[in-house]
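B., you asked whether I could sanity-check this one before it goes into the benchmark set. Here's the sequence:
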Amino acid sequence: MHWTKPEVAGGLGEGADYDVAREPQLVGDLYFEFADWLGDDIVSTSGFWLVTDRLADALRSAGLTGWRWGPVHVSMSEELVQRKPDLELPHWYRLLPTGTEGDDIVLLRRVHLCVSERALRVLRSFSIDHARVRDVSEIPPPIL
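And here's what the prediction gave me:
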């Protein structure tokens, strides 16, 4: 398995009902606000992952296990709009890792997105230039 740390392209947007002190931490839909975007087909923030429509199609077609889609509402920060007025974001899907051992997409310790060799081949056929990919053994130990 491979530990994947995508580009952090933004954060929780207005409308997100998120609180780290409760379970679940996010209630309702995810609202994601892009602060920048370097062109990768997978981005993340606060333990949430988004993929472009083209990567979403490939994940579906590859028959990968251990994931589903969740609702997401995407916006751009005012600063991003001012800096890159011609930027057109693709359509985004929220990737929800649901896998367990043996699946292609697994979430370890609630925040580490891990993918099989098969899933990594799919990811690498798209732009993931700003993502870090390491062996799952390199996940740091939990802070106690």
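One thing to flag: The first strand starts at residue 2 and ends at 5. Otherwise nothing jumped out at me.
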